[in-house]
Amino acid sequence: TEMSSQEASEGKKMSAELEKLWNTQDEKARNTRSTAEAAKRVTQRVEELTAERLTQLQQLQKSVENARAVAEAEDQVAQRAEKLEAGGLTQWQQLHEASETARVTAMEAKEVAEKEAKEAEERKIQVKGQKEKSDNADAIVVAIRTEEQEAMQQPQSVAERARERARMRTEGREKMAQLEAGWKADSTETWMIRRGEAKNAHAVTFDLDADCMLHVTARDLKTGNKQEISVQTEKGSLLKEEIEEMTAAIADIPLS
After folding, report:
1. Which residue among 44, 62, 143, 177 has the highest number of C-beta atoms inside a 10 angstrom radius?
2. Is residue 68 situated within a structural domain?
3. β-strand 213-220 against 202-208: which pairing, if any?
4. Residue 106 domain flag
5. Is residue 174 domain-shared with residue 199, that is, in the same domain?
6. For the whole model, what pTM was predicted?
7. Mean pLDDT: which of 37-46, 178-187, 193-202 is highest?
8. What is the pLDDT of residue 56?
9. How far is the first Cα of the chain from the last one, in angstroms, to the nearest whole number?
10. 61 in a domain, yes or no?
11. Is 70 part of a structural domain of the chain?
12. How far is it, in rounded angstroms, from Cα 95 to Cα 198?
């Protein structure tokens, strides 16, 4: 009887330990599933943001092309009006002033391109479209030489032509800035977002490396525990504000 009582006590103790071990394993399994689900939501959000950004970029490129077509049409109308304009400066004076304007315009275009290239190098960001700007500067020089040749064949208002060129340069710079604002070359940057007490005081870090791999780290500010996941993104498709939106998805990641 004494042995049976001892065996029963040990059996209960062993059952309690087995139940505790089972509960621990079950909790770990739930945490693993929760982590996988959170990672899946982050991946889906990345894909959605990528598709939205590419669509916006295509629309912006189309707007730039439409603006260029309108500018070319206006230029043709201006040239036709200049042919009908009588009086004004002599052909020699017009050619001289057009040549001087051409030289100044080319220098301004070159200075703008060089300044922006230097700033991009200092920030260690390769801005897409820099080569295109350089090519545009060369195209401006060619266009100006063509205008010089036309000036020898027909009278024109140099002052009006100068105003038109200045307007087109300003519009071109604005359109190019809009186009480049929606695109980021591959780079390594990190942003820290601190969540409030209602969100368990998590600090979430997003690190987009040079291979376009997005590393997300959630850290509990009280305990210091961390949970990390990595997501492959499409090159240049994420902006800082879009990455910050993804903090909502990472809030559900359990911190072991």
Report:
1. 143
2. no
3. antiparallel
4. yes
5. no
6. 0.23
7. 37-46
8. 77
9. 46
10. no
11. no
12. 72
Task: Mean pLDDT check: name the lowest of 17-26, 80-89, 137-146, 204-213.
Answer: 137-146
Q: Determine the pLDDT at residue 81.
A: 61
Tell me what the pLDDT averaged over the chain comes to: 63
Q: How confident is the model at residue 51 (pLDDT cuts 50, 70, 90)?
A: confident
Task: Please give, one letter per residue, the 3-state secondary structure of the chain.
Answer: CHHHHHHHHHHHHHHHHHHHHHHHHHHHHHHHHHHHHHHHHHHHHHHHHHHHHHHHHHHHHHHHHHHHHHHHHHHHHHHHHHHHCCCCCCHHHHHHHHHHHHHHHHHHHHHHHHHHHHHHHHCCCCCCCHHHHHHHHHHHHHHHHHHHHHHCCCCCCHHHHHHHHHHHHHHHHHHHHHHHHCCCCCCCEEEEEECCHHHCCEEEEEEECCCCEEEEEEEECCCCCEEEEEEECCCCCCCHHHHHHCHHHHCCCCCC
Same domain, 204 and 177: no
Helix-helix angle 130-151:91-122, to 10 degrees: 180
